[in-house]
Amino acid sequence: MKPFRLLSSLRHGSHRPDAFWGVQAFFFLLFFLLSACVPTSTPVILSAKSGDLLYQEGFEDNTTGWARISNDHGIMDYDSGGYRILVRQPKLNIWSTSEKDFGDVRVEADVIRLNGPDENRMGLICRYQTGNYYFFIISNDGYYVIGKFIGGLTLLLGQSEMQASETIQTGTMNHLRADCIGNTLTFYINFTEVASATDTDLPTGDVGVLAGAFSQPGVDVLFDNFVVMQP
Predict the structure, then answer these.
(1) SS3 state of residue 178
(2) What's the predicted TM-score (pTM) here?
(3) Residues 74-86: b if buried by 16+ CB within 10 A, e if exposed
């Protein structure tokens, strides 16, 4: 098992503790300011049939509303037909969402490490609401976890530490899938179910991607083929 370096008392916007989240408040403020420059989030009809495509993003068009930011903390931008996140600071996560609103969803995307340490974080977000969300994360050295960030706290769901899995392909593309259905959260890596947990805090919200660094900065990943389906 791999420690998650989690402090259960971590508060929103604290100054670089040895924990999952470092300066989330900084990026939350940036997204709040940017929201004035992008179209208002459009609620998605929740009565779609199972298997219906609710949203698809290939990141070929850089005007589709995903964050485009470059500063001392990192980069989030469309790049080479994908969506790149570069984390320039240690103990920091960076995320971006689609500016949509969903109920039950099946979220999928491909992700690959471009550069930086194998001990990294990269994954999917569902039910994002004003800074709170569920996350489904892998590291390039072969570990995974399901958790939530809510009320300024990071909590792992169904496990106390990141768990190892041979389904994670080191050094190449990984296909991630997160099912957020009712109170059940299920994580698939390369088409194999690796974990499931239950939680009732967040019934609806946005979807997105996340990348982060542990003690070593320079995590550089690329997401592609982002799809949201009705489960």
Answers:
(1) strand
(2) 0.83
(3) bbbbbbeebbbbb
Q: Report whether 95 contacts 208 (CB < 8 A).
A: yes
Tokens of 45: 């009809």
pLDDT tens readout for residues 70-128: 999 999 999 999 999 999 999 999 999 999 999 999 999 999 999 999 999 999 999 99
Q: Name the CATH superfamily, with its identifier, for domain 24-229.
A: Exo-inulinase; domain 1 (2.60.120.560)
Q: Are strands 53-57 and 105-115 parallel, antiparallel or unpaired?
A: unpaired
Over residues 165-206, the pLDDT tens digits come to: 999 998 899 999 999 999 999 999 999 999 999 999 999 999
Residue spans per domain, the chain: 24-229
Q: Which long-range contacts (CB under 8 A, 24 or more apart) does 63-66 make?
A: 65/38, 65/39, 65/98, 65/99, 66/96, 66/97, 66/98, 66/99
Helix intervals (H) in the chain: 24-34
Q: Which two tokens stand for residue 87?
A: 């984390």
Q: How many residues does the chain have?
A: 231
